[in-house]
Amino acid sequence: MAIEISRREFVVGATAGLTFAFALDLGRVARAAAQSAGLSPNVWVTINPDDTITIVSAAVEMGQGSMTGMPVVVAEELDADWSKVKVIPPPGNPAYGNPGFGGAQITAGSRTTRSFFTPLRLAGAQARRVLLDAVAAEWNVPVSELSTEPSVIVHQRSGRRISYGDVAKFAKVPAELPKMTPADLKKPAQFRLIGKSLPRVELPDKVVGRAKFGIDAEVPDMIYGAVLRPPIPGSGIDALDDSAARAVPGVIDVIRLPWGVGVVGTGFEAVHKGKAALKVTWKKGARAEGYDTDQLIGEYAAIAATLSKPGLELHKEGDFAQAWATAARTFSAVYVSDHCYHATMEPVNALARVSADGTSCELWAPTQSPGINQLAVAGVLKTTPDKVTVNVMLLGGGFGRKVEQDFVLDAVLLSKATSKPVKVVWSREDDVRNDKMRPLAAQFLQAGIDADGNLSAWRHRIVGASALARLLPPVYERLKGKDEILIEGHEIAYSCRNQLHEYLREDRGYDVGPWRAVGAGYNKFAIESFIDEMAAAQRVDPVAFRLRLLAHDARARRVVEEAARMADWGRKRPGRALGIAFSDAWSNVASVAEVSVDRKSGRIYVHNVWAAVDPGIVISPDNVAAQIEGATIFGVSHALQERITISQGVVQQSNFHDYQILRLADAPDVRVKVISTDNDPTGIGEAGLPPAAPAVANAVAALTGARVRQLPMLPERVLAALRA
Amino acid sequence: MVFILNGRQMDVSAQPDETLLWVLREKLRLTGTKYGCGMAMCGSCTVHLDGQAVRSCVTRMQHVEGKRVTTIEGLSPDGTHPVQKAWLTEQVLQCGYCQSGQIMQAAALLAKTPKPTRAQIVQAMNGNLCRCGTYGRIVRAIERAARGEV
């Protein structure tokens, strides 16, 4: 995503049509919260007299490793002894806002490393300079004669040494902080920590069950809550009989909410039994009533291919129509993808404690958006964001689901109604049925090849609902409808002088949201499948074809070449075949999948995936590899079997028996090559996903000749393609 | 209701049809065992009951009475069970939410089958979902623990 958002622009879309708008006055929000007895040169670092150093993580930790990687960046320029660093999660505070989201405090869109890398280096360097200046003054020596070793300042000429902790005992933060510029930063060759695969800081607590996820939050006098939402989103309550629910042992109260019915009680099991015992008649007439995914797939595909229906122009280059008309050879194809569910292993949950007067709130949540939580909670409590304290817990997976506010507001309203701290934990069924799913999308692609075999014309039309219009209406307005979430990944690195990219928004009354790699997941599936189809039709090797189209882009070529080399691309394997796909979404990644297909059942088996990634400067090679491994598995999972179906507005799946995510036995072996280059670092949390599905589809086509143009590639769809 | 929890006798007030998972999490405040699905489909809640890996989300307290329960908190006194060490060496975990269950499942496997084949590992671990996609590292960590290289 590349959304430019101003802080003042935030509007938080809650559930059930409630929308809260705010203008956040930063001047009134307190500065950093990480202060303690130690020396805090800036909001990121506190140097403690005992030589420990506290560094605030710039991002929440949901498995992506940022809670290690970002403090490493600070520690690198601070020249800190990493073994003495203690990392704490970011408090909800605009001081920790993400420059990649216009300063809003959100961890999403693979924008942490990319956006914070330089600011955090500068912050680390600044903290180091504050220490150096203090020692120079104390020892009465020029600061230029001082140098640092890990957590120690050294005066070479006199042989004097002092630890950072000892400096913190006397140093003061100057009224005016030293201004740092990139020229003050280390050269990559001087890095001691960046580029090493340092162990992740929070893992020791995770292997012993001590790590606290959102669901583990607890405060005295806490009670539990559950919320029943209508089966068809947006339906109001017509009649409610809560007598059976109130009779469930442990149920304390039943509370109507704007978007459903809350049950509070003494434990998870009690409140969910109570919820199940509610008898609600829902009003008819919700917009989502007619929402039917089986039908929509066809409708969206038809809209995509109806060229007389104009789309919003996303990108225009040269003259597509002219190039198409004069191409030596032309290609057209439609690709579609179903809705997907996030399936974070930790279902959404939150604990809220609203003050007795109802004007302030403390929140504990596994949240990707502490800054937005403050705005949303302030909105419902009619107070200001600084009255909302957000304790960021570890996230048991995020993938875009935990940027939402619905689960947080459940807890806040139930706490307000009961005057008690309330912890709301959605059941898995709640989590599946009330997800903000990845958009269902259709794509129509057209391409022309000129007489020399070059790609001369490219057109991409994307049809789907808008996530941005719901999440951030003013941003959607300002971007004039270019939903950067939905259209993500539509750009191509391939050389083509005549391009036209369009978005056709369909609003059918069902919420969609960001998902891991969101738009790039289905857009790259379409693009990379299509490229392969063109290669096959010309009888050109798919790797060679891509390399030719990437002749101008050495970094892109290198990952394609490397993935092909790793997979031993040219080697034939009986009963199996390879497929390749490339993605420039976030980072350059190429993946090669090795598959076999059971032609009777139509089932695809993905045996191996080889992936090469170039994320620029690599903070932790092992973590980059882990992210690409994981996103590849995630991508194969959604490519093969993940599908939410909605019939007459009702989600048809409810738990892991009917929404199956990939299990170990079906998971490919994934091998990753991390190519570190001297370029600014780019995101790696999502980058591994987009090439996974098209690599599989291309391998299936190479093996069987059958082209599956639909995600997921369910056995019946493979059979249909085999028969086609 | 009396049972042995992580080596200590425990007397907890619970109904026979309450599930072990929520008794552990809410009444005994051992939150290392995670809720994932409530229907034994994901394995996040895996604990040992008399040494066997079971899904605590579907284990009723009536079946726990008088038995030995081990949770992630009690797998080893100081977090140095070979599986835990191997998990760190291989940096298996990403979000880590499913990993208490994965570790308990793996520990039960190795207790019974100290040198498992890859097929045995896959079979034993297939009921434990990991959304972050750490499966490859899980297998590598179990193989490492089995080799004693921790």
Describe the structure.
The complex is a heterodimer of chains A (724) and B (150). Chain A has 724 residues and is α+β, with helices and mostly antiparallel strands. Chain A folds into three domains: 31-190, Aldehyde oxidase/xanthine dehydrogenase, molybdopterin binding domain (Aldehyde Oxidoreductase, domain 4, 2-Layer Sandwich), CATH 3.30.365; 214-285 and 348-425, 2-Layer Sandwich (Aldehyde Oxidoreductase, domain 4); 293-340 and 437-723, 2-Layer Sandwich (Aldehyde Oxidoreductase, domain 4). In chain A, 29% of the residues lie in helices and 23% in strands. Chain A contains 19 helices and 30 strands. In chain A, the strands form eight sheets. A seven-stranded mixed sheet of chain A has the order 12-13-10-20-17-18-19, with helices on both faces. A six-stranded mixed sheet of chain A has the order 15-23-22-21-16-30, with helices on both faces. In chain A, strand 18 (361-365), helix 9 and strand 19 (388-392) form a beta-alpha-beta unit. The longest helix of chain A is centred in the first third of the chain and has 28 residues, at 112-139. The radius of gyration of chain A is 27 Å and the shape is globular. In chain A, 57% of the residues are buried. Chain B is an alpha+beta fold. Chain B folds into two domains: 2-74, Ubiquitin-like (UB roll) (Roll), CATH 3.10.20; 82-147, [2Fe-2S]-binding domain (DNA polymerase, domain 1), CATH 1.10.150.120. Helix content of chain B is 34%, strand content 13%. Chain B has five helices and five strands. Chain B has helices spanning 20-27, 82-89, 99-112, 118-125, 135-147; strands spanning 2-5, 8-11, 46-49, 52-55, 68-70. In chain B, strands 2-1-5-3-4 form a five-stranded mixed sheet, covered by helices on one side. In chain B, a hairpin with a 2-residue loop joins strand 3 (46-49) and strand 4 (52-55). The model of chain B has no long low-confidence stretch (mean pLDDT 98). The interface between A and B is large, with 61 and 54 residues.
